[in-house]
Amino acid sequence: MKSKLNILLLLVLFSTGVAAAPRTLITVIVNGGNWSSTSTWSLGRIPANNDSIVIPAGYTVILDNSYTLNNVYINIAGTLNFNQNNTLALDVNSVVNIQSGGTLTATHPTPNELLTINGVTKYDGKTDGSIPGPVQANVMTGSSPSGFSEVILPVNFVSFTAIRGDGTVQLNWNTTGEINNSHFEVERSADGSAWQTIGNVAPGTSSLANSYTYTDEAAPVAQTEYRIRQVDFNGNSLYSSVVVVGAAANSTARAKIFANGKTVSIFPENISGSRITVRVITMGGQVLQQETVEAASGRIDLSVSTASTGIYVVQVTDGSQWALAKKVML
């Protein structure tokens, strides 16, 4: 449920003719990484205009340079740490959301460590110290030290499941607390990296609880991943967890997948082709690590030393004909 503050923001944007463009998801994949380092980010580049920027729980990003960005949505579940004398200047369409457990802070607080939206200072490293979530800053919130206000997510995903049928996959999900929900987008991926929008679903009529069903009539034979993207009226979005649907019965390719500590072991079976790709994917759908190896009949070991403790999806694929996956704890 959105706060009245965000409803006012929506009205202001429509009345002024300002509309936020679609955003590209970019996620932190290196803990303790610098914002300026391309290796810190899932797309192999630093954030740009029109990005949805995610800092996952347990991860810290250091703002080591000053940046000006337009139409970005920054979602902080971990920590964004301002370094000395650096400024993040955002435009009128931008939003900074700090989730519960997330923090905006400054290691060496100075008056020059600023977060601004439309020229208004929302965070001052010298006076504001650390700001915990759940709070949000946008064009309608106040100025420092009251630049962030309490916010509630537009939708809560309660469950998300997928069932393979005869040439189809049926997706079912349940939500609570919907308000200002524009629609849902159903996304499908064969490799956990490239996602395709295959359908749209209208929002429910209840602000308490809703159930949804979508059938993928052209479901691939190979193992496939699905996720739901909830889109708010102001263009902000929220992703469900990822569900993995096994390959159809006539698929003979197999792989046994095990995890021991931070090492993933794969034992390929009945795999055609000379090379396969192994990916370790977060439950949010982002590729944490990827390696392409020879499709030998023996054992493949993949070290995932950068992974935070949690559940991940390990995917094995030849890139075109088939894909297999399994959830593991690292």
Radius of gyration in whole Å, from Cα?
21 Å
Could you tell me the number of beta strands? Answer: 30
Largest sheet: 6 strands, mixed
Strand order, sheet with most strands: 1-3-6-9-14-15
> What overall geometry do the principal axes of the alpha carbons give?
globular
pLDDT under 50 segments (min length 5)? 1-20
Helix/strand/pairing category: mainly beta
Beta-strand fraction estimate: over 45%
Number of helices: 2
- Mean pLDDT score: 80
Question: What is the secondary structure topology, with strand pairs?
Answer:
Blueprint: H1 4-15, E1 24-27, E2 33-34, E3 51-55, E4 60-63, E5 67-69, E6 73-76, E7 79-82, E8 87-90, E9 95-98, E10 103-106, E11 114-117, E12 120-124, H2 125-128, E13 131-132, E14 135-137, E15 149-150, E16 156-164, E17 169-176, E18 181-189, E19 196-201, E20 209-216, E21 224-232, E22 237-239, E23 243-245, E24 254-260, E25 263-269, E26 275-282, E27 287-294, E28 300-303, E29 311-317, E30 323-329
Parallel strand pairs: 1-3, 2-4, 3-6, 4-7, 5-8, 6-9, 7-10, 8-11
Antiparallel strand pairs: 9-14, 10-13, 11-12, 14-15, 16-17, 17-20, 18-19, 18-21, 21-22, 21-23, 24-25, 25-28, 26-27, 26-29, 29-30
Notes on the structure:
By secondary structure, this protein is mainly beta. The protein folds into 3 domains: 4-150, no CATH class; 156-245, Immunoglobulins (Immunoglobulin-like); 254-329, Immunoglobulin-like (Sandwich). The chain contains 2 helices and 30 strands. The chain has helices spanning 4-15, 125-128; strands spanning 24-27, 33-34, 51-55, 60-63, 67-69, 73-76, 79-82, 87-90, 95-98, 103-106, 114-117, 120-124, 131-132, 135-137, 149-150, 156-164, 169-176, 181-189, 196-201, 209-216, 224-232, 237-239, 243-245, 254-260, 263-269, 275-282, 287-294, 300-303, 311-317, 323-329. The protein has a 6-stranded mixed β-sheet with strand order 1-3-6-9-14-15, with no helix packed on it. Mean pLDDT is 80; it is low at 1-20.
